[in-house]
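note to self: the first set is below, dont mix up w the second
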Amino acid sequence: MKHVLQERFSLLFIVLNLLFFPVFAQTTYKISGRITDAGTGVGIPFANVAIKGKTVGTTSDENGIYSLTSTQTGDSLLVSSLGYQTRAYPIQVVASQTIDVVLTSTATKLQEVKIYAKGGDPAYRIIREAIRRRDQFDPDQLTAFQYESYSKVEAYVNNFANQRKKGRGPGPVGRLLSKLPAIYDSQGKPAVPVFVSETFSEYYQRANPHKTKEKILKSRASGVGISDGGVSAQLTGSSFQQYNFYRNYINLLRKDLPSPLGQAWQTIYKFRLIDTVTVGGVVCFQIDFEPKRPTDLAFSGTTWIDTTRFGLSQIDAKIDQRANINFVDEIRIEQEWENVGDSTQTTAAGVRLPVLTQLLIDTDEPTPNAPGALVRLYVAARNVKVNQPQEAKFYEPPLELAENYSEKSPAFWQNIRPEGLSQDELRAFTIVDSVRNVPFMKFLGEVVNLTMVGYYPIGNIHLDAGPLLNSYAFNNVEGHRLHLGLRTNAGFSRRWILGGYVAYGTLDKQFKYGMNVDYVIRKKPYTIAGIQKTYDLERLGTSAENLGGSSLFAAYTRFGTLRRPYMQEFHNTYIKSELGKGFTQTIGLRNRTFEPLFPFAYNVNDGDKKTSSYYRTTELMFETRFAPGALMVQSDNDRFSVEGSNNPVITFRYQLGLKNLLSGDFAYQRFSMNLRHSFRMGVLGRTRYQVNAGYIPSTIPYPLLYIPLGNETIFRYETSYNLMNFFEFVADRYVGVMAEHNFEGLFFNRIPAIRRLKWRFLATGSVLMGGVSKENTALIPATNENGQAVLGFQSLSRAPYVEVGYGIDNIFKVLRVDAIHRLTYRNNPNISTFGIKISAWVNL
């Protein structure tokens, strides 16, 4: 799932790759001051500040301080914030002025009520009662609900106008970008937008069975390095922005953040009753909350609870840089819940749903003088309907992108937008188009896109070159391996997908090649068919089925000493369809050869003692994949799955060997199953595991049996046995379990000396049981037809293969180090009983 979920955060990754370029903007007029609450005098964070009738504005910081620098001026300053009345202040035509703003809350403050209670702050009793009644207000408990959704996402590069050391001026990039228009942040510094999108969709959810669906009707997106607006439309719609604080955990940036209204509320949080106010016509308790330990990955903020029904009315929750999370200075979620009509209820109270959500992610600067990034999300719901479920088949597919989704007409978006968006937000599209069309930024976007996707678009001929990782390798068989691949993109066709590659080894002086033709038969349900042919060098134990789709690990296995290499001619014809309800079915007809480059043979006929070193197989392959809760995202002509974090994914495969069909030499059957699952264990962290099982009730040469994936590199790979050699074991019946538990900051957050490092502790373990039948063992002769001694294999005995480990994650925010012990088969030749494995990725 990890390689898939990297696509989901590619937009944020683009922003982070743009953080190293200083920019300066011209300043003519400067307005600054502080925005405070009229009742309490406390600063109001993230209030909108704009010059009336102009296209410039800013927001206040966490203390309510703002600073607006602009070449434009006007007659009045407009200030607004969620939950407050908008006010206008006159502006003087001077170079610099201070305007302190006082906003009046739209919530009506009641008379002071003193509450005396035993057992501590009464906020605990209120939260306890709200949690007891949460089934009455949790949207997941409704029979169904649906609404029209408008979402807007913006990403900015900010904090780049800081003076460099020794008073040095801006560099060439800074001088270039200083000529571009910018939006000003809360301190009057320019913030350059690098991505902005708007999406209009219909969102549906039902409870029994639990199903969701989003129809993305219209969308537009613009950004540096963004070539397909359809991907951003799918990833920034309501399907991925469901923040329900009645759930035990809020999933945000692949993190499980405990809700202050979840089961762990008393373990993680402390509460304080502040006041009693009226919010949206409902009398509410105002309660502050914060984590008991500042380094815990948990929210702090304020919630407003209905005094009569004890339902959530509003919440303002944030996480700052003290928490165990990387690259983030602050995350802030503001959410409003409102009563919506329910025709199935006789009471006038109705039910309550979140109708407005605002999310802000402010990244942490990697160094004091480095730029940062700011991501803002705005989601509004309207025309809400509840308890009107659709038929189950209506919810398939869960994520649907309309054929005519692209809509760039300003008139359409002006009519569809909710009220309350600032002038800066409305002009972001114009500015980001200016930024992305700068030649250097276009080049930078192409570099970032090449890094993430692996393919580089070639001009206007609708071809992409790549993948980058396969361009070069060096091994003992091929010497220097040079690889060039091409594929068509969506500009060529959204139905036909053509691809191919050619590779050459300087040592074996042999060309290898591959080609494929795929055709999208239909898009609802999504069905694709294709044919493929390759002739290339392979090695036992690192087949595509074993590697599980890891392009990085697959590329690395072509380096070094290749033991038991062979040439393979491979033909594949397949059809794949998404059947709904999380099911994907694939049927294929495969034909492949085995041409060993090492001493190999198998007995063809026991009576004649005849052997052979070459064989060809023909097989039918049936694969069923069940991924409940997964969302399929379409990217140009690619399609990938974003799986639910708490749902298992099961894959079952059956392979039937056909003798004499297309010169197939064997009749056989292979059964295999893979189960992957990840689940939360409360405050103890998250557990991930996978189970592999298989059975081959046939007598066939050992290269056709199951060869568990080993790992002889210094890098840790999550689906391999990390202290097992390549091709160390063979099995025709097997069961394997791989598990990992991440305690996150449970231990290190409690150690004063190192908790600032934000390390995370992990424990891992892998077990493999299996064996090989006597019939399959007997197929190996002593020598081949050339008189060479045939290399055999080792099978597992009654003792399972076992390795366990422990590690530290989040070292320097990107590194992970695992110490792994091999507990069994410790006397095998050329193996390691203990190893240190490293891995690295951008980890939040």
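second set (the one i keep forgetting abt)
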Amino acid sequence: MNVVRLTVAQALVRYLAALRTDNGEPLFGGVFAIFGHGNVAGMGEALYRHRETLPTYRAHNEQAMAHSAIAYAKAHMRRRMMAVTTSIGPGATNLVTAAALAHVNRLPVLLLPGDIFVSRAPDPVLQQVEDSQDGGASANDALKAVSRYFDRIVHPAQLLSALPRAIRVLTDAASCGPVTLALPQDVQAMAYDYPASFFEPRTIEFHAPAALPREIERAAAMLRDSREPFIVSGGGVLYGLASDALRDFAHKHGMPVAETQAGKGALAWDDALNVGGIGVTGSSSANELAHASDCVLAVGTRLQDFTTGSNTLFTEARLVAINANSFDALKQNAAAIEADARLALDALSQALGDWRASPQWTTRAHRAANDWRETVAHVTNTPVPDGRLPREADVIGAVQRSDDASPAGDIVVCAAGTLPADLQKLWRTSAPGGYHVEYGYSCMGYEIAGGVGVKLARPEREVIVIVGDGSYLMMNSELATSVMLGAKLIVVLLDNRGYGCINRLQQACGGAPFNNLLDDCKQGSLGAPRIDFAMHARSMGALAEHVANIDELEAAMKRARAADRSYLISIDTDPARTTEEGGWWWEVAVPEVSDRDAVMSARADYERAVKARNGIHD
């Protein structure tokens, strides 16, 4: 047997560099790295050796670079991905939030944190977490709960089994998510005689299960018994490359389609059966139809509370769920089809034959879809009232109007606050991937880092990051990374002087405005700072300007589109006004006792809503 003598780090990097997708592209688009004493010697040397075939990207924050890697995989519909390497200690634990984000969103990322010495000879090393009751404890243990597969490489031969297992999880439709291979720094440097065949180029097959005939027949029978069926399209439609199958299925059988945050873009925004977003941040048309439906076909969705209206939206319907992951397919007591979205939709359509929904239902869906498109046009083109600051809808309208040629060709990136709600309602996209909003974990700080990953994946597209001042202040350093990499972003920053979304929720629950908007926070003698976001962006190498109104924003967007580097535009917005159209109830627990009348009134409303969900009426 031919062997190659390599260190663990060298073997790992060489293995990753040899993997290919079915169209011949490298499976791994690169490795994001911030070096420290736990990875600079081992992984650093190995990455340098393979820097031409497996590029290394330097970032400014470990959580942010993991966000970039996750966004890269999402933009590639999970068909390509990235790895991330950090030192031990804070570098590794900075990955925990990003790993949770990838876990919740079912997105692949390979995490390669450095770890403590297996030999224990120099214990305790710098940044080592010690446990008086567990000598083998490591800070990396914090990643176990948020990894779909975790392994600590304590011997060089372990890679021969750990790496294939890791790749299978990363490329499996059912188990996809973050993988952590913790790399003790002494083991990284150990040499071993590896079989040369282990490093031969190989094509990775993405595993997606086909539907069982009995599951298809049961679902087909349920749909045939319905007259007013309804489709909820989730992220699994996009990741399963099932957009065409979904469109064909919906039109053949006359069924309206609503999209989750992760599934938005599966159908073109102006498709006759696309009734808009679903749930708490969805359209009024979609929610009205969903609530009236007698059978819901949920395709590739986790059915989280924003999709189901905290389990109040589908109360009159039986549920059929298509999902590669059995855990998700069985939610809501659904009739499960544990399968890939495209394969299942094709099989289900064949089983249904010429069956169609009630003609009246399909006609109602066409009318509802058109009504919502008219609502979107009205909301995004209504002038800002005199004396008022613009709101999110005004900004979204201006951004999309700023490109007369193909506004639906942009990729919008966002993650948290009011913006995802308004974007799900109002953003128009004509192709899969044009809507990139991380709302499974709703992680503030994802936006700019995610934008970098999207731009690396889709350099030919205009990537527009829309972000609030709160998220920007949490994590903005990857704007400098975007400039360094030539990964141009347009960042539209809405400054409402604090956390406007949570401030409104606080008051809706009866609370007093407190600790959310800067003016309502505890302050020293100098008061809350006035932040010049344009100046801050320019300090990191981007172009930037502040605009005073929507007309100026449209003009600035044209300059940003023509720019040769990342460009930030800031605009002051109203923290109190938001889009009233659309939406649905969301359960947020209100205190049962309080000395505030407003809280007790909100509690009474909450209790009535919970009773209604449970079928109890006063």
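remember for set 2: Residues 267 and 408 are 12 Å apart (CA to CA).
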